[in-house]
Amino acid sequence: MAKKSREKRVEAVIEVLNKAREMELQAIGQYMNHHYALDDMDYGELAAKMKLIAIDEMRHAEMFAERIKELGGEPSTDMADKVIKGQPFAEIFPFDTRLEDDTVAIYSDFLLTCRENGDSISMKIFEQIIAEEQIHMNYFDNVASHIEKLGDAYLARIAGTPASTGGTTKGFVIGGAE
Ligand SMILES: [Fe+2]
Ligand SMILES: [Fe+2]
């Protein structure tokens, strides 16, 4: 098989970087929606963490965009999918756990595309972001299982806690909120 031209290889990498960026843009919208929903339900602590995770996704969207620009591409402004609104409380954390789990699986494929096309810088970006999505997934899964196992006792402890992020705007992973 003939070797792909450099142009084709760069094109393949830009394509997965943009697909990932669109997934980040969807996650930002979804988590901001969940942030406001949890705040309205008066689960302040959960709302605050959700806000910080949305900030992480914004940083990821920027990391992908910067790499796309370096490669001479145009960062997408589309979302991979629509934001789901008005989810019942019990569905929020299992939903977000699945979203992160799917993201890890898809980004692992995208990382392979970067490897096949000889782009080790983009591979490293995916590696770092996959590790952060895993932290998000573990957190969401942890909250989901607390809600499932402890139910009202857990929620009574969370109800009325402050929705403030304590001045941190660095996000969940870097801000050390985990
Ligand atoms: Fe992300
Ligand atoms: Fe995430």
Q: What is the compact description of this entry?
A:
With 178 residues, the protein is mainly alpha-helical. The chain is built from 5 helices and no strands. One fe (ii) ion (FE2) binds next to helix 4.
CATH homologous superfamily classification: Ferritin, core subunit, four-helix bundle
- Largest sheet entry: none
Q: What's the CATH class label? A: Mainly Alpha
Provide the β-strand percentage band: under 5%
Helical fraction equals over 70%
Counting structural domains, the number is: 1
What shape does the CA trace take? Answer: elongated
Ligand inventory: fe (ii) ion
Ends: how far apart? 48 Å
β-strand number = 0
Q: Helical stretch count?
A: 5
For this structure, the CATH topology is Ferritin
Helices and strands, in order, run as HHHHH
- Based on secondary structure, the structural category is mainly alpha
* Rg, Å, rounded: 18 Å
Oligomer: single chain
Sequence-ordered SSE layout with sheet pairings:
Elements: H1 6-40, H2 44-70, H3 89-116, H4 120-150, H5 152-158
How does this model look, in words?
The chain is elongated, with a radius of gyration of 18 Å. The protein has a single domain, classed as Ferritin, CATH 1.20.1260. Helix content is 72%, strand content 0%. Helix 1 runs antiparallel to helix 2. It is mainly α. The protein is built from five helices and no strands. The termini are far apart.
